Structure formats: C-alpha cells, structure tokens
C-alpha cells in the first residue's frame, strides 16, 4: 500500500511540502527561552552533580530506615489491594505524601546545604 | 545604565547580557523572514531582561528565591527516589516475593518487642524473684512442669524431675542396681558390660567408652550421672 501511495500524484504534493520551511509552531517551541530552573537543571545534570546528590540522598535515606518504612507501606497497601491489582503509579501516590513528610531533618538539611553551595558556586 | 528600574545592577550582569545579545545577534540568521528574526530578538530581549532582574533583586530576595530553588531541586531528587522505591516494591508485590519476607517480618517484630521489654527497667530479669525473664519475654518456672511418661516404669513424671527419676529407675541408684543385677543378670551378660538393664530401654547397649549416648551406667560406671544430665 505504501508503494501505491508513493507512486500516485500525491507524491509531488508531498515532495513539495517537504521543501516548505517548518511551521511556526515547531519553531516557537525550540525558541522559547528556558526558565532559570531549566538552566540550573541542565547545569546540574551536565556537571554530574545531580547524580552525586541523588546517590547521597539515597544512601542517607537507606541508612536512616526511611526506605524500609516506605517499602513496608507499599507491601501493606499491595496486600490490601490484592497483589496483582497494584500499579507503580498507585504506589507512588501512596508513598509520596508520607515519604516527603518523613524525611529526617538532618538528611534534608544536608542535601539542601549541598544544593545551595552548588547553586552559589555556579555563576548565573 | 548602572541603575535600571531603580535597582542597582551588577555591572557584570549588564556586560554579560550585552555580550550575549551581541553574540546571538551576530550569529547568521537561519531563517530569512523578518517576522521570525524579530521574534528571536524579542525572545532574546526577554531573556536578557529576566537575567538582569534576577541579578538586580535585593539580597534577601535572592536568598529566598535561591532557597525556593533548592527546595524544588530537593523535591525533584526525592521524587525520583520515591519512584525507585515504588517500582521495586511493585516488582516484589507482583512477583510474589513478599511472601518469603512475611516470616522475617514477624520475627523482626517479635525480637524488637522482646528487646524493648528486656531493656525496660521495670523488668529486671534475673533479679526478679523466682521468675527469670528471657530475651523473648517469656518466664520459666524454676522446675519444668510438663508431664511425661517414663519409658522404663511407665509412670507419669514431671519434666523437671525426669532425669533424677530415670537415674533411679534405670539403674544408677542403689535400689535400681540391686534390682537389675538380680532380675536381668543373664541379659546383662549377653550384651556388653555397660548395657542398660531394661529390655525396652531406648539407649544404646554399648556404652563402654561411649558415654555421650546418655545410656545409663551399670555398676562401676561413675559417669552416668553426668551423661544423664546431658539429656
């Protein structure tokens, strides 16, 4: 069917349309200025700092038992809902409020400290 | 140009913006239509203005937006870790691996409770009268009180009194020895020297040097009380 389509008179139309410059919509998206947040985000990722911060946070949360708590909550929820009826999305929505609230203050302070020092070290 | 919009501006910011502007304008335009060029210039202007404004805000504003940014980034990191935990828990749930963890969980909980009880100052453990509290929080009476049946004489004996009873019943005691030598001396001669007296004794017939079987001693076997206590 593709060959049939490629051989008809429509092909000329398509070829002509390919030569046209792209529509303004596509151009607008690429030219929209990135927000400060996006700039910082890109800088974080590119320098590898984001990965380091994530590893540090993960390590601290495992040490303080936060991860085990969250897994226990997930397990209880899965058992309640039936093992085959849970979705990742569901579990994320279950854990997120409790998880955000139960991060120990020392861990949070340490990470915020490191993020702030990174922000101040990179010139805006 | 140092005072823009009534705020003091770092000159570096202005220079940076100016440099950026020049650089971007000097880049050859990819598209020839004037509308598109104008749009690009417009967007660049907006970028420069926003950068200037960021640098020109007073100090505490900067700090608060900085801390807002930090909190946002922290939230971002935390979200990705939450997703990791959730997906791992989801995998465990779907594969049924959490069935194996159940018993561990119960055991962990029990040992935690026992530890709490043990460290609780109200339970002093050894010093608490005659009931000793062990690490699981169970108390044991000084004498075990389960009732068992002696396989030799068929009487029901309390577990704590079982070993001494067996001693007497099976032959360490004087009366038992007398009874044995009188009644089953023929059987004794057939088996080895250290054999127990009763035919339905479960312990092995060859004691001799082999004391660990716990077999009862006959005359001359002084270690029998030691081995019986090992029971």
UniProtKB/TrEMBL annotation, chain A:
Subcellular location: Nucleus, Nucleoplasm
One protein family per Pfam: EnY2
Keyword Protein transport listed: yes
Keywords: Activator, Chromatin regulator, mRNA transport, Nucleus, Protein transport, Transcription, Transcription regulation, Translocation, Transport
GO biological process entries: chromatin organization; mRNA export from nucleus; protein transport; transcription elongation by RNA polymerase II
Molecular function, one GO term: transcription coactivator activity
Main subcellular localisation: nucleus
GO cellular component terms, A-Z: DUBm complex; nuclear pore; nucleoplasm; SAGA complex; transcription export complex 2
Gene3D superfamilies, per database record: 1.10.246.140
Record note on quaternary structure: Component of the nuclear pore complex (NPC)-associated TREX-2 complex (transcription and export complex 2). Component of the SAGA transcription coactivator-HAT complex. Within the SAGA complex, participates to a subcomplex of SAGA called the DUB module (deubiquitination module).
Family of this protein: Belongs to the ENY2 family.
Function: Involved in mRNA export coupled transcription activation by association with both the TREX-2 and the SAGA complexes. The transcription regulatory histone acetylation (HAT) complex SAGA is a multiprotein complex that activates transcription by remodeling chromatin and mediating histone acetylation and deubiquitination. Within the SAGA complex, participates to a subcomplex that specifically deubiquitinates histones. The SAGA complex is recruited to specific gene promoters by activators, where it is required for transcription.
HAMAP family membership: ENY2_Sus1
Protein name: Transcription and mRNA export factor ENY2
Protein species of origin: Abeliophyllum distichum
From TrEMBL, chain B:
A single GO molecular function term of this UniProt record: zinc ion binding
Location(s) in or outside the cell: Nucleus
Keywords: Activator, Chromatin regulator, Metal-binding, Nucleus, Transcription, Transcription regulation, Zinc, Zinc-finger
Biased segments, Polar residues type: 181-216
Keyword Endoplasmic reticulum set for record: no
Chief place where the protein resides: nucleus
Source domain of life: Eukaryota
Classification via InterPro entries: SAGA_su_Sgf11
GO cellular component: DUBm complex; SAGA-type complex
Region entry Disordered, spans: 173-231
GO biological process: chromatin organization
Pfam families given in the database record: Sgf11 (PF08209)
Family: Belongs to the SGF11 family.
Name assigned to this protein: SAGA-associated factor 11
Organism encoding this protein: Abeliophyllum distichum
């Amino acid at each position: 069917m593709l060959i049939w389509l490629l051989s008809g008179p429509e092909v000329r139309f398509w070829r002509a349309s390919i030569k046209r410059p792209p529509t303004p919509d596509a151009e607008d998206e690429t030219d929209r200025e990135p927000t400060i947040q996006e700039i910082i985000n890109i800088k974080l990722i590119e320098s590898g700092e984001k990965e380091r911060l994530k590893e540090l946070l993960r390590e601290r949360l495992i040490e303080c038992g936060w991860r085990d708590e969250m897994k226990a909550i997930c397990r209880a929820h899965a058992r309640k809902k039936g093992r085959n009826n849970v979705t990742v999305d569901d579990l994320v929505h279950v854990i997120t409020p409790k998880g955000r609230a139960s991060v120990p203050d020392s861990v949070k302070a340490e990470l915020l400290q490191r993020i702030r020092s990174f922000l101040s070290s990179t010139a805006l | 140009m140092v005072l823009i919009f009534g705020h003091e501006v770092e000159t570096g910011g202005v220079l940076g913006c100016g440099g950026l502007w020049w650089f971007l304008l000097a880049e050859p335009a990819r598209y020839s239509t004037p509308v598109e060029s104008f749009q690009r210039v417009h967007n660049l202007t907006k970028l420069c203005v926003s950068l200037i404004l960021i640098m020109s805000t007073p100090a505490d504003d900067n700090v608060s937006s900085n801390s807002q940014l930090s909190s946002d980034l922290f939230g971002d990191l935390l979200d990705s870790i939450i997703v990791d935990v959730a997906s791992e828990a989801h995998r465990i749930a779907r594969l049924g691996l959490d069935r194996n963890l159940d018993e561990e969980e119960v055991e962990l909980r029990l040992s935690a409770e026992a530890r709490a009880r043990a460290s609780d100052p109200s339970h002093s453990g050894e010093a608490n009268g005659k009931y000793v509290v062990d690490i699981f929080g169970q108390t044991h009476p000084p004498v075990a009180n389960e009732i068992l049946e002696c396989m030799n004489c068929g009487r029901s004996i309390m577990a704590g009194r079982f070993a001494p009873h067996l001693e007497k019943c099976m032959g360490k005691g004087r009366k038992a020895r007398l009874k044995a030598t009188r009644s089953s001396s023929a059987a004794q001669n057939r088996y080895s020297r250290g054999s127990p007296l009763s035919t339905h004794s479960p312990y092995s017939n060859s004691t001799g040097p082999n004391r660990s079987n716990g077999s009862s001693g006959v005359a001359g076997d002084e270690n029998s009380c030691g081995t019986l206590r090992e029971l």
